[in-house]
Amino acid sequence: MVRGTAVELLTVIYNNFMPECFSIPFEKHSGFLLRVMRNPVEFKVPMKNYLNTDSGFTLVEVLVSLAILLLFLPAVASMLTGSQLLASLSKHKTEAAYVAQQLIETERQNINAFFTAPIGPLTAGQSYVIGPSTVVLDTKGNYSSSTNYFNGVSVITVTPSVYTNASGVQTTSTTTDHFVVTIYWTEQITKAKVQMNETYAADIINDPMLN
Prior knowledge:
By secondary structure, the protein is α+β, with helices and mostly antiparallel strands. Helix content is 36%, strand content 28%. It folds into two domains: 2-43, no CATH class; 91-205, no CATH class.
């Protein structure tokens, strides 16, 4: 069974890969192939030299390929740069919203100060501003800072809350203040620097049990 399998394999090899000078049906040269199988070194056939050929790329083809590469490479580089800047903007907006919420929670703990002197209580038309104060939006450095931080500016504006009563009349609350936190920063968008901002607002009631 093994011999038959080997002969079948040699038949395929012989009929498909042997040089044309040996392209005679296998049945007439089975003895020859068995000799090849026993001593293959004796019947080595020189391989073709594929290195010394004229196949390859012409100078015109190479120049055209380089021209196409140079044409599209700046566009690809610009897309990559734009993608990186948009990712940076998204990160800073997320961090700005988080910082604004943290500032709101800080003021929530100190809400009583806005209903006692010297700050409050605030009346209709009055406002109290906290800031501007520096806040950190990134910790990896950036285009506009020589330090290791990317900073923004926070401004908190406090006004008395206004609500509509059952009669449809707007009334100024004496127990609740309206806090608006705005974070400003400068973002690099393509080739220009753009002033960005993120705002977070909340009404905080002057009740120690709720804060």
